[in-house]
User: Fold this.
Amino acid sequence: MFGKIVFIFILVLLIILAIMFDWFGSREFAQKGVEGAQKAVEQIQDTGDQVSEAIETIKEKGKE
Assistant:
């Protein structure tokens, strides 16, 4: 168990160092990953807003 935790820690540390010092063009990959995550978050927010609006509409029609 301890060995797995150490392995994961070392792996994360190597990824951080690779981005920090731009080894193997890793900054570009990290940038694309962050942009992709941002787009996913925006899509989730839009979907949540649409669902909230639909729920409010249903509640208002139920009150009438």
Notes: The chain has two helices and no strands.
